Amino acid sequence: MIKDLFFDFPLAAFLIPGVFLFVLAGMFLHRHRLSVMQQYSKIVQMVMLPRDPVSTWVKGTLLCLTWLAAVLALMQPKGNSHYAPNTVLSTGQEEGIPTHQMQFILDTSASMQVKDIRNQTRSEYGKEIVDELARQLDGKSASLWGFAGQATRLSPATMDALFLRLMIRDLQINEGNVTGTSLINAVKAIQKEISELPQDRKLVAVLLSDGEDTENISAEEKAKNLRVLLDDLKTKFNDRLTIYTIGIGSREGGEIPDVLEQGQRIHSKRDDTWLKQIGESSGEYIIADQESSIEIAQDILSKMKKKNLEEWISKPNETSSVKEDMVQSLIYTLYFQYPLAFALLFLTIEILFPIVRHQTRSPK
């Protein structure tokens, strides 16, 4: 059974519309042949074997299928990720190198129901990003939190990516049955998570929200409370904590469905202020506007790998063999040969398929 199917070269999908060029070229060639045939005398037309319309359509269809199968092979599909047999994953702890744990904190407030990004709700988009990150954990453990008025731990740290992805899909709006949005409580969830970790482990927290905070305090007081909390985190865990905040939603925003305030619809839009303050304190703020969830996830993963590489370079006592042991890549089953085989099969049938029908004439 194929699972987690994805592509090494998805941009090749832009070649799929090229099949319409085959259709247009086939129609043009058919009309050209008819016009040429009309130039011959009727005697020559009677002697020549007519082209079979069914054969023409069949050969054209086979060429189109050949093109589609070839493009699919070029996209290099793969899946069924697994580790090599008898592979022992090195944690790096023997050499004093901290291992990483990830924490996903997703906004589940009512405003995440707004459908203003990539023709889907903010909640669906955020779930896709977290799901893509969870799919590529590569042996790391991760926990899942949801927050609205308060933060709730939905899954403890686990290396079971399948379980984590199922929990992500089951996230509900206003998880924890507390309405509103409190980004301070989301940061406190990060504080709680890293405080429970051993000293030899690092935490990479990914906070996804539209940035709207509904706590009933002034902006000045909110900024002060956040600054105090973030400064405390930076002082205690600066070398062990990285926070990526992801702003979900558009600047224009939209109306929150099924929510009224004094009989009026509530308009919601992305607010970068608090997310930027949180992200830039110990990591980076990323705006998820129209990029795909895969692009956002890959951006975060590449930043993590770059930071890991910088840490390795800064350790002069590390040997190359130890560094190689620390990098564990998943093995994937390649599937490009299947569409490639179909492409060759379709092309062979097209070449061998007769162009004209043979007529048996009865003797006079």
A few lines on this structure:
Residues 101-304 form the VWFA domain. This protein has 364 residues and is α/β, with parallel strands linked by helices.
CATH level-two architecture of the largest domain: 3-Layer(aba) Sandwich
Mean pLDDT: 81
Number of strands: 11
Number of helical runs? Answer: 11
Distance between the termini: 63 Å
Largest sheet, in brief, is: 6 strands, mixed
- Sequence of strands across the biggest β-sheet: 5-4-3-6-7-10
Shape: elongated
Name the poorly predicted regions: 87-98, 318-328
Reading the helices and strands in chain order gives EHHHEEHEEHHEHEEEHEHHEH
CATH C-level class of the largest domain is Alpha Beta
Number of domains: 2
Proportion of β residues? 15-25%
**The CATH topology of the largest domain:** Rossmann fold
CA-based gyration radius? 29 Å
| Oligomeric state of shown chains | single chain
- Supply the CATH superfamily name of the largest domain: von Willebrand factor, type A domain
Helix/strand-derived class? Answer: alpha/beta
- Helical content band: 40-55%
Q: Keyphrases for this structure?
A:
364 residues, alpha/beta, Rossmann fold, 2 domains, six-stranded mixed sheet, three-stranded antiparallel sheet
Question: Could you walk me through the main structural features you see in this protein, from its secondary elements to its overall organization?
Answer:
- Pfam families: VWA_2.
- This is VWFA domain-containing protein.
- InterPro entries: VWF_A (IPR002035), vWFA_dom_sf (IPR036465).
- Keywords: Membrane, Transmembrane, Transmembrane helix.
- This protein has 364 residues and is of the alpha/beta class.
- The protein folds into two domains: 94 residues, no CATH class; 208 residues, Rossmann fold (3-Layer(aba) Sandwich), CATH 3.40.50.
- The protein contains eleven helices and eleven strands.
- The strands form three sheets. A six-stranded mixed sheet has the order 5-4-3-6-7-10, with helices on both faces. Strands 1-2-11 form a three-stranded antiparallel sheet. Strands 8-9 form a two-stranded antiparallel ribbon.
- Helix 6 packs parallel to helix 7.
- The termini are far apart.
